[in-house]
Amino acid sequence: MLVPSRRRLRIEVWIVLGLSLGQSAVYSVVQLLDKMTRAPLAQGTSTLNRSQSPREYFDLTYQLLDIVFALVPVVLVIYFLSEHRPAFGSGAGGPGASACGKLGFNFARPGKDLLQGLGLAALIGIPSLGLYAAGRALGITTAIIPSALDSYWWTVPVLILSAVRHGIVEEVIVVGYLLDRLPRLGWSIPVAIFASSMLRGSYHLYQGFGPFIGNAIMGVIFAWIYTRTRRVMPLVIAHALLDIVAFVGFSLFGKAVGLG
User: Contact 259/146 with Cβ under 8 angstroms?
Assistant: First the structure.
């Protein structure tokens, strides 16, 4: 089996991040600076799901295209991982196993993954509400608007697809992929976990410093669990559930969180 050189792996990682969440992190930093130089963060807002056209079916088309193309870097990651063994552990990532098997991104144990995902969602979601409230009170977090889509028949299904997209993209790339590649580059597991969590926090900086801290902590927990289980699917489920509750709940019942 051909093992890629460290130089090749570095280039590969930069390509993946430049096409996905690394790019998001750069934009997030710029957006944060833009908001901070306009007004105090407490007066700012961050909208997560925006309408992209006043025409219903064009808006639907744009939303679906965004979701589909956001998943392309995940396909790229699976392609890159398909020919190489994982950096640590054995588990499902033995010789000849598919990349999805190496990552634990499959339906090999649906019941257990679902239960773990539900538990993680509760573990992360409840404290996140308190952290958001604290951030708003301290003036370091913007008001977060989970959805600004108009009310159409397709709004809730699209929000669910958007939540699933976020779960897949973030957990497969930031956890599964990076925790395979960074150790291959000579990084220790604790340092790789730290880097993964900082990246997760950084692409949420446009929401303020509170979400940066909360997502960084979430990143440490998720990455640590992944090093023990070698399964990314419970993380995807937990992440998707958190976003579904936020996106759909807000769309159906809420106004801008923290405004007023």
Answer: no
